[in-house]
Amino acid sequence: MSIGSLTLRPLDPLKDAELLHSWVTHPKAAYWMMQDAALQDVEREYLRIAAHEHHDAYLGLHDGVPAFLMEKYDPRYVELAGLYDPEPGDVGMHFLVAPTDRPIHGFTRAVITAVMEELFADPRTRRVVVEPDVSNKAVHALNEAVGFVPVREIDKPEKRALLSFCTRAQFSAARGVAV
User: Fold this and answer.
1) 137 pLDDT exceeds 90?
2) Which CATH number does the domain 6-175 belong to among 1.10.510.10, 3.40.630.10, 3.10.310.10, 3.40.630.30?
């Protein structure tokens, strides 16, 4: 069964803020840690990301309709600076699937797969790095399904996180694709 078309476009912090606000304050987005954010807080956060030379945000579209958020960052400067020894070609990633009243079976896995394909489309990307909350078992299972290997727990200012890596070869192997 086909999920449909998943594409990405650069996030517009002002035009997309109201939509993002509805997503990040939804109870299903608890691990995004913006539950109490006001619309202006969301605008400010994504304007900050847009202005940062080492952090980018993208709106994910499902058949042309906004359905998920992806952030990519350079872990040498954002999120993980000083918390691990980065390697050349490391790219950090966050993703959030929009809440829906009509879930599609396999959609979230299709989204993380599309996100990983986008990141590895850049030949400079050698390894994707994630740092989800240690208690977010659902995302750990998704990460494992696309090839992530947990390395260790780390303490970030806002959470205890599970540092995990996925190389291009691990992603290909998880998908059953020869490198």
Assistant:
1) yes
2) 3.40.630.30
Of the candidates 94, 46, 43, the residue with the CA atom closest to the CA atom of residue 70: 94
Give the number of C-alpha atoms closer than 13 A to the C-alpha of residue 165, restricted to the C-beta side: 16
Q: For 104-120, how does the pLDDT look when each residue is reduced to its tens digit (9 = 90+)?
A: 899 999 999 999 999 99
Question: What tokens were used for 174?
Answer: 């998880």
Q: Name residue 70's amino acid.
A: M
In Å, what is the CA distance from 169 to each residue of 53, 141, 172?
28, 19, 5
| Contacting residues for 67 by C-beta, under 8 A, at least 6 apart | 6, 60, 61, 97, 98, 100, 107, 111
- Cβ–Cβ < 8 Å for 7, 111: no
